[in-house]
Each structure stands twice: as C-alpha cells, then as structure tokens.
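FAQ: What does the model actually see?

It sees only this:
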Amino acid sequence: MKIREKFKSEIESSKYPVIGCVVDNEYMNLQDEYKEGSNVELIDISSKEGMKMYRRTIVYIACMAVEEVFKGEHQLYVNYQLANAMFCQIEGADNSPEIIKKVKQKMREIVENDIEIKKVVMNRKEAEKFYNETGTVKGKLQFDFEENNEIAMYFCGDYYNYCYGTLADKTGITKHFDVEQYQDGFLIKYPASSNPFRTPNHLREKKLAWGFKEYKEIHKILELGTVYRLNSRIEQNEIKDTIMLAEALHEKKIANIADRIANNKNIKMVLIAGPSSSGKTTFSQRLGLQLKLNKLQPVTISVDNYFVEREDNPVDENGEYDFECIEAVDVELFNKHLVALLNGEEIKVPTFDFLTGHKVYKGNTMRLEEGQILVIEGIHCLNDKLTSDIPKEQKYKVYASALTVLSMDRYNRISTTDTRLIRRIVRDYKFRGYSAEHTIKVWPSVNRGEEKNIFPYQEEADSVFNTSLIYELAALKPIVTPLLEEIPKESREYAEAKRILDILKYIKSIPNDLIPPNSILKEFTGGGYFKY
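And it is asked to produce this:
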C-alpha cells in the first residue's frame, strides 16, 4: 500500500497541504510503499523541508513547461536562488516577456491538471538501456557514479527528469507561485514556509543577485559550474589550476573592496556581517592585509563586549535569553564609544563576563591613531541601529556569504544553505568538539536567527563578497562524509545527513593539503595562516 493511501485521512485533514514524509528517518515521496511497522511523519508545506520539496517540484514543473513550449528545442537552466525565488534562463531563447508568459501559462496548466509525478527506479542494466534509447543526459550523473546500483527518474506524463532530492507526488500541490521577467532571465517565485499560501510580491535582493551573477558568469567562461565539469578537472589532474583560479578571484575581490574603502577618505569604519559559516573571520583578516597595502591600519572592536547587563537581556518566546537580537547589545554605550573614538578620544573598553552576565572594566583603553580604521564584525553590522550615531558616509558595510554557484547539473543547483551547513559541521567537529548530529540538530535555530537578524539587512551592504569556492565541496567531502555516516538511522537528524550524503557522493574528493593556507576554507578545516 502506498503511503498516500495508508494515511489518506491524515493527509486530507491536515491544516496545510502534505507534500512528503519521513519514514524511519528517511525522506520519502507519498507514492512510496508503506511497510508495516514503519514510523511515518507527514511533512506539510509549512515546514522547512516541506517548502524545499515544494521548491524542487515547482522547478521541475518549470523544466517540463519549457520543454513542452519549445518541443525540446530549448532547455531551462536553473541558476541560483534569491530569497523565495529561483532565477532561471531559457538557453538559446531571448527570454522575452512573451516567451516567459507562455512558460507561465504552461506551468499553470500543469499544476491545475494535478498530474502524478512518479518516481521510477531502474537497475544499472535498465538504466543503460534507457540512456542509450533516449540519448538524454538528464540525471546521468547518477548513472556515471559506478557505485549506484539503482538509478531513478521522475516521470510526469511523457516528461521525465531527475531531482537530487524528494519531489511531491502530484503537480497540484504547487498552486502558489508566480513567474516574472528579471534581468536576462526570469524568476520562479514561491512562498515561504512561514506563509505557505502567499507568494512574495517584491524581490529586493539586487545586490545579492549581482554577487551570484558575477561568479556564475566567470565560472561559465572557465567552463566550470557543474559537478560533472568539476569532476572532470579532478580526473584530468587539472584541479590545482582550478583552485588557484578560485583563490585568485577571492583575492582580487577583496583587494577591490579595500581599494574602494581607501579611496573614500570619509570612511572611518568597516562593518562586516553574514550568516553562519560564511568565512567572515578569514575575510576580515584578509581584508585587513589589503587595507594595510593601502596604508590603512585596521583596528578591531568586539561587539561581544557590549552586551546589556543580563537582567536587561530580552527573552524569547520560550522564556530563554535571546542573545542574538539587537536589543541584547548595549547600543547606547557602543555608539557613545564609537563617536568618542572617531573624535580622537580615548575610551575604557569593557570586557563582558559571560558567567556573571555583566560588563567589567580591566583597565583596557583604546584610541584611534592617524591612519587607523575601525573594522567591526558581527551579526548586526548591516543594521543601522547598531551604529545609529555614526553618519552613513563614515561607514562601509560588507555582506559576506557563501553564495554557491556549483550545480549538480543544469536543472539541479546546490543550496547555499547546504554548503554553509557542511562547512559548519566540519568546523564544529574540528574546533568545538560537536558531532555532525548536534550541528544538524541546532541548524534550524541558527537559520531562524539569520532570517531575523541578518537576511533582512543584506541589501544595506555597500559590497557583497561571495566567499564560496567552486572546489570546496570536493575538499570538504573526505572530512564531512565520515562525520555524517556516524549518525545512526534511529536519529531524527539521519534524514538530513542522508540527503547531504546523497549529494556529496557524486562529487570526487581532493586532498585537504591542496587547500592554500590563506584560503577561507582553512577557517573550517584548520591548518591555515590566520588565527581564529
């Protein structure tokens, strides 16, 4: 019996549409067979994983629509995600409003017809016959991976494609979406899990889009960007050149930011923010080196020493102290000290005692000398409230994030959030003694903090620095794989671990010693030049 049939009443009575499930801690499609005694947890679209399935499904439908509209003459290329939208292009077409309108209409038709999406699993012999007869390259990465004994394809009517993740079993669940022209392509917009029945009206992530587009175009010129091409570089012993190019791109971008800061004599402080595991600390130190080359001496001041007294710290909905909200920072004192420093005055720098929950003064003082510039890193640095007393022209804000441009293939991109999670699992294990299971468990809480305190302010940045490296998953794979494999199947975190492993298994590994000692990756793997 299929899961959809077994749990029919629960699915029909659910407040939000059910899109998939977790069976014995593995993500499953509702058309999968139910085995007696299995533990089944239904997933609806108000959950993070449910919305990921929603997003994969609507992108699958878009690929299907493009193929039907153009009778196979043109293909969809899925580029990158911008908030609750996916930026796509139709290769070989002009992506005009008329064409995009046709694609949108076809997508509506597919959704309204509520067509079944069926996962067909083939053995290697069957898959070889399928690929020989169709001549397709869809999902071929899974066939090229020789260890795969089962090769899957999702069929929807006469259309087929592969997805590196679970899809919905019917097209009708993705009722809420929109398609609109954007730059030289179009956006597929979909809801957030927090409001699954409403598609966002506006997209503000223009600077973020620029950060993605710039890297995407560079890697397209270098004939990189997909796992197949990265694997080819590794197989042909050309990966060292790829690594040097990726690191050179980072150095160039950091130098450009430093030059812009140095050329504006009004700038007195640099503010750096970004989500977890973006490599902000390494970026800050590398930026500091470039500033020194511009005859500027960076001086840091830690926001962590300016927490409010513990009794004044706000609490969250669970009654626990919320140390991540802006109200947890003594903004008044912080601004008072910043103004004093910029006026050439000396300040008494506090040290926050996290055991007692109070600021203490140990005789530490600070004064800005000629040629020095403040560099401040923290989650609220893009929020003007943190530095409200400092004129805008005296501040330069940088948003640093790992905006992943590596894709599995033209249809399936690798999530920026997944890349950061992999980085964090490695760092937590190496430097904090945490297991992969623990990191995955707390990751949703980390994401909620980012969505509240960081992402709403990313467009306030003067520069966006993309910390991603096209080769990084190949370098992190040999470290993170055994950590993920340690998670027992009985754990709730097993489903996420398996999902990530199912992506990583297609990426060929490279030795850790190929990572340059000044690379941002060393912040996570260890052994680099910089101190953390």
